[in-house]
Amino acid sequence: KKQKNPIPSMSTSLPPPFPTVRGLSSRTPEEKEAARKKDQASHNRLRALQKLPGNEVCADCTAKFPGWAALPHGVFICIDCAQLHRHLGRHISQVKAINTGTYLWYDDEIDAMEVMGNRKANSYFYGDSGIERADKSDSRTNKERHLRMKYETKKWLTTTPSTNTKTKTETSSPKKTLGRISPTQKQQPTTTSTTTKKNDGLIDTSWDSWGDWSAPTTTTTTT
After folding, report:
1. Residue 164, in any domain of the structure
2. Rounded to an integer, what distance in angstroms lies between the CA atom of residue 5 and that of residue 24?
3. Is the peptide bond before 183 cis (omega within 30 degrees of 0)?
4. Per residue of the chain (223 residues), what is the pLDDT tens digit?
5. Residue 150 DSSP symbol
6. Compositional bias (Polar residues) at which positions (predicted)?
7. SS3 state at 121
8. Which of 109, 102, 110, 104 is nearest to 47 (CA)?
9. Are 112 and 20 a contacting pair, CB within 8 Å?
10. Secondary structure letter of residue 57 according to DSSP
11. Does residue 142 form part of some domain?
């Protein structure tokens, strides 16, 4: 019986400051147990990051309130774009839900979301090209084409991010320019009192295992 190829470490070919995030197959039982114990704190931290300016709109389109993340890019994305990221392949992008309490999150993954975030990541992916995110109403074909140029061929990627630090409000309008921040400016989440639903059946699953994304909170723990 053939075994599936292990999920690689997600170093990809992205330049600093994009972090290296370890693949799921490299997690030890001790790390998984530690992640389960701090699951509520991890999700509180993610929700605080999600509320920061720029992260409340999908990094790839204009959809608001994104509930997924793409690693190692460190961006918050909507469910539609998360499905498209899956088509890019796990060697390019791996997606993980942040709102369901179903997926285990590890410290290095959350650190990647904190170090990057949508504005900072897009300042590298788009640079001064003038390219904007896709509109949420664009066709699936057009969105996937945009994502492939952005993440697969890295058509606009630059090692020198946009120097335009003037922030414009992220809206659902496709005519608005992306807000950008300095790559040296680390996001500072504020203290949040948000609580998460207790889940004693957390699963440690592949990030693009779409059969699990809507699983109930009573799912059996995967080892």
Report:
1. yes
2. 12
3. no
4. 444 443 334 444 576 678 788 876 788 999 999 999 999 999 999 999 999 999 999 999 999 999 999 999 999 999 999 999 999 998 899 999 997 667 899 999 999 999 999 999 999 999 989 998 999 999 999 999 999 999 999 999 988 776 653 333 344 343 433 333 333 344 444 443 333 344 444 443 433 333 333 332 333 333 3
5. I
6. 1-13
7. helix
8. 110
9. no
10. B
11. yes
* C-alpha closest to that of 204 among 4, 26, 18: 26
Range of the domain at 47: 1-193
- DSSP secondary structure code for residue 147 in this structure: H
Contacts for 163 with CB less than 8 Å, ≥ 6 apart: 128
For 180, the token pair is 């950008």
Q: Would residue 206 count as lying in a domain?
A: no
Q: Cβ contacts of residue 2 below 8 Å, gap of 6+?
A: none
Length of the chain: 223
Give the count of domains, the chain. 1
Give the Å distances, CA to CA, from 217 to 34, 101, 133, 153: 19, 8, 33, 37
State the DSSP string of 60-109: SBS-BS--EEEETTTEEE-HHHHHHHHHH-TTT-EEEESSSS-B---HHH
Q: Residue 149: which H helix or E strand, with range?
A: none
- CATH number, residue 144: 1.10.220.150
Structure tokens at 170: 């992220």
Tokens of 20: 């290296």
